[in-house]
Design a protein that fits this description.
heterodimer; A: 210 residues; mainly alpha; 55% helix; B: 203 residues; alpha+beta
Chain lengths: 210, 203
């Protein structure tokens, strides 16, 4: 093996996204219809329109963060009196009730994780687009982290689905879902899709174009 | 093909490199970005199938038995996984209900069913033509199965309501915890390269 780092793309080889098989890409005209010989999935050197898709999804998610945080996510109706909560006011309420650990968990899952994901993805896209001289292995680590934490934002939504069922005590206490829940769900799904569309190999391609 | 089969590209940085021999007992990592390139041969080749079957057995009790019970001023309420989804739908949050349905019920179920099918095919040395589609679909379902997040959601809801009234953890929670462990074991011990090689040989 030579020590000069070579990418599969430079050798005209592509790794299948589905089954990981390395195979030779056909000539330029047929590249758009290329299929993996093992699993017949479409074959690409890099994820298709990676930056455009990821950026569009990130912007959509960032816009939806506004209704998700401004509108009510949940209303606890206690003896006929409703107490509407946004994500943040719910966390403050937990903190004041001395449930600090739970407040921290909800804060991380519902506020920090979506923001970190959007900011991190935008940063990674800027690194690729403007060739920022950041450490490539650290950028890859950041990408893996974004991928890893994505699903944990669903925590708040699952909790709502549990609470509205458990706390349905007729006139005494009920919990109602608020419109922010749908917006927040959209943020979670869009950020997961944005992370899936981003191709970390683009970061490393910068090394080979110099 | 023999020399090309030993070559591999890193999924995260596309570095072209030679893989260690397939019988190597350790995971192969990319020297440039440390991504996992190849898993060692599984010590228990049918662990994934066993975990999937175990999860399927736990699936019905985990979704139908009550998870939590809340008592306040003589009134009680309890919930199951399926009721939570139904209630979201009834409150007019259809999209949200569908998302929770996918992540907490459909994706785990299909992931287990598909992995059982894939494991059985490999154990019985039969390869129907739908095998490849099943691996792809199972991979998708694994991405969207978020039962471990749901389990933490139960814990958070439990702690949150401890001060407001009497809250108990019921049998459904334990089944759900078992189901979660089965799902993680099933996903972790599944060797997709082995399944794809099986597909290639049988065709």
């Amino acid at each position: 093996m030579t020590m000069q780092p070579t990418t599969a793309k430079q050798q005209g080889l592509a790794r299948c996204k589905q089954c990981a098989l390395l195979s030779a890409m056909p000539s330029r005209q047929q590249q758009s219809q290329a299929l993996c010989p093992r699993c017949h999935s479409p074959l690409h050197f890099r994820r298709h329109h990676s930056l455009q898709r990821s950026l569009a999804l990130c912007i959509a998610a960032a816009l939806l963060l506004i209704p998700a945080n401004v509108l009510t996510i949940m209303t606890v109706v206690n003896l006929g009196q409703g107490a509407p909560d946004t994500i943040m006011s719910g966390i403050v309420r937990l903190w004041q009730a001395d449930l600090r650990a739970i407040a921290a968990v909800v804060f991380i899952a519902s506020i920090l994780v979506p923001i970190i994901k959007i900011v991190a993805l935008l940063l990674l896209m800027m690194v690729v687009q403007f060739r920022l001289p950041l450490s490539k292995s650290q950028c890859t680590a950041l990408y893996r982290f974004v991928h890893l934490i994505g699903r944990w934002s669903m925590l708040d939504l699952f909790m709502i689905s549990i609470l509205i069922t458990v706390v349905s005590l007729g006139n005494i206490a009920t919990v109602d879902t608020g419109p922010a829940a749908t917006a927040f769900a959209a943020v979670v799904v869009l950020t997961i899709l944005a992370a899936n569309s981003f191709d970390p190999r683009l970061i490393w391609d910068l090394e080979h174009h110099d | 093909m023999t020399s090309a089969a030993r070559l591999s590209a890193c999924p995260d940085c596309d570095l072209l490199q030679r893989l260690p021999p397939p019988q190597a007992a350790q995971r192969a990592h990319c020297p440039r970005c440390a991504a996992v390139l190849a898993e060692p041969p599984p010590r228990f080749p049918q662990l994934s199938l066993a975990a999937a079957l175990c999860g399927l057995m736990l699936f019905i009790p985990a979704t139908c038995l009550p998870i939590l019970r809340f008592t306040l001023a003589g009134q009680t309420g309890s919930n199951t996984l399926a009721e939570g989804i139904l209630r979201l739908w009834q409150q007019g949050f259809e999209l949200l209900a569908l998302l929770v349905l996918l992540c907490s019920l459909l994706a785990p179920l299909l992931h287990l069913l598909l992995n059982t099918f894939i494991g059985l095919c490999q154990a019985l040395q039969r390869c129907p033509s739908s095998f490849a589609h099943c691996i792809k679909l199972s991979h998708f379902m694994q991405d969207w199965s978020m039962l471990e997040v749901y389990a933490i959601g139960i814990l958070v809801a439990y702690v949150k309501m401890m001060d407001d009234g009497d809250i108990e953890i019921l049998s459904g929670s334990y089944c759900l915890a078992g189901l979660m462990v089965s799902l993680i074991l099933c996903a972790q011990s599944f060797n997709s390269e082995r399944a794809w090689q099986f597909w290639e040989q049988q065709r």
